[in-house]
Protein: Aspergillopepsin-1
Amino acid sequence: MWQTSPAAVAALIPFVCQLANGAPSNKRLEAFEIATLGGAAFRIEQVPNPDFYYGSRRGPIALARAYSKYGHQIPDDLLSLIDQILGELGLLKGSKDEHRGGKGKGKGGNGQNAGKCSKGNSTATNPDLGGGGKGGSKGNGTATLPKGEVAAVPAEFDSQYLCPVQIGTPPQTLNLNFDTGSSDLWVFSSETPITQVAGQAIYNIGASSSAKVLQGAKWSITYGDGSSSGGNVYMDKVTIGGVTVENQAIESANTVSASFSRNKNQSGLVGLAFGSINTVQPAKQKTFFENAMNNLAAPLFSANLKKGSAGNYNFGFLDNTEFTGDITFVPANTSAGFWQFTAQGFSVGSNNSASQSAPHQAIADTGTTLMLLPDDIVTAYYKTIRSARFDGASGGFVFNCKDQVPSFTVDVGKYKAVVPGEFMKFAPVDGETIETSKTCYGGIQSAGTLPFAIYGDVFLKSQFVVFHGGNNELGFATKPL
Structure:
């Protein structure tokens, strides 16, 4: 059932074992040959997405995608800006009201179970997250929708690097986005209407001798603008690196949101959160990692993402050339289906700055680019940048690109995770590059009313992060930047 490439087994790769249980701890332990450990271990290298959009105003779009993914209402000013940006890029199809759902009369729902909107600015409310208060007769009503990502925004704005995945027999290679903030493995397929395919590599179901339909199963992800992706479910072989899961649920797209249709190099997503938030009905399906975990040399994977270049994921082992010092492990609260942890406080500026107590829940999400933090932390950070201001039209904080930008440190257990100030220059606002732009969009933005902070790629690219499924822990360590 399990296959591991000989090269992966024979490789001399340092492996950190005897990982911590329970309370936060620091471990630096000895290295072994993978061949002596038993089980599978492999590295998967990211590949660049040629369609990734580097230009101005990528920041507001990243914020809108993050809000919609987690069911947070997108402010009207931000929606208007997105309409303008997509129109300028020739990516806006249909009328503005069709794109945004319009702003008109609509009756909002109550509490967790929101009602329908006739023409309201319908924004997803994740039932797992709570919220969704009353909407006014002319207000922005909310509809209870599953988790997803904003469909109004093309995926090339978010997925700078992708990972090759092989599906079926013989194997078909598709470049997919690894996402620790979701739990569906869905792909463009031979069932996807040709009008929704723009050059993506597809999963040809009929060409795979090992594909079997999962009878009666359907999947569906609804996005913040009311559009959706969904379709049938097949069981087939999936190989990532040197490991094959023989019977992995593959969610075949009969319908694909225009967001993903426009990105010809991304053929879908690999969710690496927990199966409890998988969208397959009537029975939720396990993720690739959950299926592979017990057959790995160690039940974990690490993310070594990088700023400005392709990073990598390691499954089943830890490479101690990729991090420095000790790894601090903290408990992961998986009850909501995410890699959730507790951050105790923060500081701004030099490592000698005193930490301020600010306990908050957070999730580690490789599928979100920004850091979304509680308002008091966001305000405290931007107070230290002379030119920083909240730009309502952009939905977030901006500042002069020439300003000295301080580092941001978050306390996780006994570990202090430092995000360099340069990482906070997330995107240009009035130029095509950071170097040519006067104004920069900040890498830290408000989490609004979300019940937890989102530690996305701005944070993850500054750290070596371990996702330990055996112990339900997250590990953090410094690394060469």
Remarks:
- DSSP finds eight helices and 28 strands in the chain.
- Residues 1-24, 27-37, 94-159 have pLDDT under 50 and may be disordered.
- Residues 75-144 form one domain.
